[in-house]
Amino acid sequence: MTDPAQHIWWLMSRASGVVALGLITASVALGLLMANKMLRGKNVAAIHEQLSITGLVAIAVHGLTLLPDPWLHPGLAGITVPFAMGYRTVFTGIGLLAGYLTALLGLSFYVRRRIGPKLWRKAHRFTVLAYVMALVHTIGAGTDMGTAWLRTFLFATGVPIALLFVRRLLPRKKPAAKRSAPARDGLLDAVRGGAGSGHPHPQPDLPSG
Ligand code: HEM
To answer: Does the Cβ of 55 fall within 6 Å of ligand 1?
Structure first.
């Protein structure tokens, strides 16, 4: 029987790869939910930030634990230079690029004032690209792609994320608050079918449909 201890680095790298994928997936999903205004609040933003940071740590562990692996022995260049690893070169190269992109787009949050918040926000949208690259990497480089649990995970998270992304790209309705107060009051009166009520208190919301 094979002794798992002989493959400890390989197993650690695979495990941290799956953890990294889980954290990055959760972070991207939360980011899209916030961008679509389906979730709001400081706590949600804080969880999104923490997921990204822990995801980056997991990516670093995933790459670094390959270094001592006696079978792969990728060398420092193999785990730092895209497409320099002799193992599934294209797919591991894409993984490395995904890692760099995730780090760049995530960590630039802390210097967003220097970059300019608008530019930072635009750049941050490319995180979805990093996520797609991580998926391609997982599918092409992973040993566990043959297992039902990893395929189910990829499908069950990838489909909702794709839908959220499409929704994000669709044009948005202008928020009602942007209408001027007189115009809004006029609209309410018209809908209520009469002259202005002159009611000083907030009126109950009208059905939107
Ligand atoms: C966004 C960044 C990354 C994510 C989310 C990620 C995730 C994953 C996942 C989930 C697997 C499959 C594990 C399995 O099948 O058990 C994997 C495999 C692999 N990754 Fe990454 N990875 C990333 C970046 C990297 C980087 C930077 C490197 C190299 C330094 C790398 C090297 C590898 C290798 C060699 C494999 C094959 C291991 C195996 O046979 O399963 N990955 N990765």
So the answer is: no
